[in-house]
Amino acid sequence: MARIFILRIGHRVFRDSRVTTHVCLTARALGADGVIIADREDKVVESTIRDVTNRFGGPFDVQSGKPWKQAIREWRAIGGRIVHLTAYGLPLPKMLPEILDAKGDVLVIVGSEKMPGEIFKVADWNVSVTNQPMSEVAALAIFLDWFRQHREFEHEFSKAQVQIVPSRSGKKIQQLPPE
Ligand SMILES: C[S@@+](CC[C@H](N)C(=O)[O-])C[C@H]1O[C@@H](n2cnc3c(N)ncnc32)[C@H](O)[C@@H]1O
């Protein structure tokens, strides 16, 4: 299966830490392989996500501080494709068949505030999840749901210490033996 990473651009430490944490949690829960938080190191977000991954399973990679241009260069060097989520792009339902046909690994770029103009040019696809402004977390969730063709409930997490037991009422959590 194609690997999928998220490149989070424009993260501001403290101010965006909560939303960037939600970008990472959403990416992990919906089956992405990792998040690169560009340009600024945020060890607090990294350690929160590693802690969730240790407890609930992975693999899921999180790193911060790499310049966005370098992240894109490295992604290109391994033959990966690039999707930029933006309200200004072409609609997801129209673009998805082309993205799925291309097959390779996919880097999904999401912004925080204003995105550098070059991003629109380096992306293979500028994709909108409606042409209305919305949260990057919501746009990413919908993109991943469509990209994985609604199979996120089948995603398996390995080396989990615990797992949630679905329940009609209350909170049930089960300890798992080491794998
Ligand atoms: C809260 S928005 C801020 C965008 C900023 N005002 C700008 O003009 O670049 C943050 C990110 O959410 C994503 N986003 C927002 N609305 C979107 C939409 N309708 N479709 C796809 N992505 C969207 C984009 O990745 C954007 O960079």
Description:
This protein has about 180 residues and is α/β, with parallel strands linked by helices. The protein has one domain: SPOUT methyltransferase, trefoil knot domain (Alpha/beta knot, 3-Layer(aba) Sandwich). It has helices at about 15-30, 45-55, 70-75, 90-100, 120, 135-145, and strands at about 5-10, 35, 60-65, 80-90, 105-110, 125-130, 160-165, 170-175. It has a six-stranded parallel β-sheet, sandwiched between helices. It has a two-stranded antiparallel ribbon with strand order 7-8. Strand 7 and strand 8 (about 170-175) form a beta hairpin. The longest helix has 14 residues, at about 45-55. The radius of gyration is 16 Å and the shape is globular. The chain starts with a strand and ends with a strand. The site of S-adenosylmethionine has 18 residues, from strand 4 and helix 6.
